[in-house]
Amino acid sequence: KVACWKRPSLSEALASQPTISRFENGIGRKELLRMAKGMARLVVRQLPAETKEVILDLDATDDPCHGQQELRLFDGHLGAYCYVPLYLHITDETGRQRLMGTLLRSACGRSTKGVMSLVRLAVRLVRERFPDVRIVLRGDCGFGYGKLMNWCDAHGVDYVFALQVTKPVQEMALPVQMDVAIKHSRAGEGCREYGDVPYRGKTWDTERRIVIKAEAKGGVIDTRYVVTSDTELSAEEVYIWYTQRGDLENRIKEMKLDLSSGRTSCHRFLANQFRLML
Questions:
Q1: Which long-range contacts (CB under 8 A, 24 or more apart) does 23-27 make?
Q2: Is-contact 24 275, C-beta < 8 A?
Q3: Hey, which bits of 191-232 come out as E strands?
Q4: How far is CA 181 from CA 93, 173, 211, 220, in A?
Q5: What share of the chain is helix, strand, coil (3-state, %, to 5)?
Q6: CA distances from 231 to 88, 199, 200, 210 (A)
Q7: Beta strands in the chain (DSSP E)
Q8: pLDDT (tens digit per residue) in 2-61
Q9: Can you tell me the distance from the alpha carbon of 91 to that of 135, in angstroms, rounded to the nearest whole number?
Q10: Tell me, what DSSP letter sits at residue 205?
Q11: pLDDT in tens, 154-183
């Protein structure tokens, strides 16, 4: 009662559990869309008035299901029945991270499901308030696919994504790997080298910059790849810029542990989306 601004001494009771259940199950698609837009606009209004650049971070996590929820499906990679919610955080120039949007998804299907809709909404709302702001999209290799990068190029959105390893990309990394191998033979563990090459994937509209990072450790050469629209930063600076997204894992951990975002135990899928947004 105190949390709801009610006096404990009053005999008036709060809503019962069945009433709350009816409330969360009465929410439909239109209401959820209005909620998503309203919450995203609220976050954009919290950004400093002098904002010149924002980073939109995409990430997904697992949400194990222990009942008979709608669209509860088995994920072979995770080895469990679960949902795979998508999170979008926005970071301003002060480093402040804010959750801008979240989308509950079934475990079955592409990891890119719902990404375009969430990104379009976020970009549109940011530019409503900051028409000239630089927007950068950042994510792991699950988000670095042709359709999204083509859209970013067409709408003036910069990006930095991890790149899935393919044979052509591996072949382009050989000179960087050779440099690391030579340094390792002289200096031992911890040697690393950065480089970049132009590359065009099969579903890409244009050639893009691929950043390569190779490091000798544990007797092997560990190689990572990043694709970016940035042409000004060095290869090392681009890779470090990409790895800063790792801090967003802590925000998702806070959602799970402190806000119980995994309490998606309603039978209806839309009711669980409502819970996740709350």
A1: 24/266, 24/271, 24/274, 24/275, 25/266, 25/268, 25/271, 27/270, 27/271, 27/274
A2: yes
A3: 192-199, 208-217, 220-228
A4: 38, 12, 18, 9
A5: 35, 25, 40
A6: 25, 14, 16, 11
A7: 53-60, 63-64, 73-75, 80-83, 86-91, 97-103, 134-139, 158-162, 192-199, 208-217, 220-228
A8: 777 777 777 677 788 888 889 888 999 999 999 999 999 999 999 999 999 999 999 999
A9: 10
A10: S
A11: 999 999 999 988 899 999 999 999 999 888
- Number of residues assigned to the chain: 278
CA of 207: how far to CAs of 117, 196, 199, 228, in Å? Answer: 25, 13, 5, 11
Q: What's the number of CA atoms in the CB half-sphere (13 Å) around residue 171?
A: 4
Spatial distance between the Cα atoms of 9 and 227, rounded to a whole number of angstroms? 61
Rounded to 5°, the CA angle 39-160-262 comes to: 40
Q: Say if domain 27-277 classifies as CATH 3.90.350.10.
A: yes
Q: How far is CA 91 from CA 41, 42, 78, 170, in A?
A: 15, 14, 29, 32
Check if the beta carbon of residue 127 is closer than 8 Å to that of residue 133.
yes
Q: How far is Cα 73 from Cα 90, in angstroms, rounded to an integer?
A: 30
Alpha-carbon distance of 72 to 106, in angstroms, equals: 7
The answer, as to whether pTM is greater than 0.70, is yes
Instruction: Tell me how far apart the alpha carbons of residues 216 and 188 are, in angstroms, rounded to a whole number.
Output: 8
